Amino acid sequence: xxxxxxxxxxxxxxxxxxxxxxxxxxxxxxxxxxxxxxxxxxxxxxxxxxxxxxxxxxxxxxxxxxxxxxxxxxxxxxxxxxxxxxxxxxxxxxxxxxxxxxxxxxxxxxxxxxxxxxxxxxxxxxxxxxxxxxxxxxxxxxxxxxxxxxxxxxxxxxxxxxxxxxxxxxxxxxxxxxxxxxxxxxxxxxxx
Length: 192
Prior knowledge:
Blueprint: H1 3-13, H2 17-37, H3 42-51, H4 67-75, H5 80-88, H6 100-120, H7 131-139, H8 149-159, H9 169-183, H10 185-188
């Protein structure tokens, strides 16, 4: 499946602009991590990001999401690594994250949502967003309270051994900020 095919499928299953934007942000972060960890496989990483929540609007319960979507992906021939990464992004699925793709998807999912929340309360949006601001907002439990701080922390801890030496949490945040800023159209334009 190509990213364009994945995007069409995501649009078929998802009406919500904010959920579509979330999946685009996660896909942008996945593209950035693919450059580091699997440069010849970037399209598959982007597909995992675009489709990780594509069934959520129709099937929002823990009994259905992401299981219904993954069954559909299997039926249309999406490969096992992408499907396993999507299952692994949901802690409750019981599916272990065993591949770099799965670790990256888990590491960027909650973080991408949190970064969008941070950008929305800034006058310059993503333009001036920096890791230190993200870290400060993470400490404020009332801000974007639905974002699991544990998932953000654990996700990076699981991903860290796969990354170059010296790649710290700030670099992780900056990588995702830059990915969203440069690859997601609604965030790449300068604010008016």
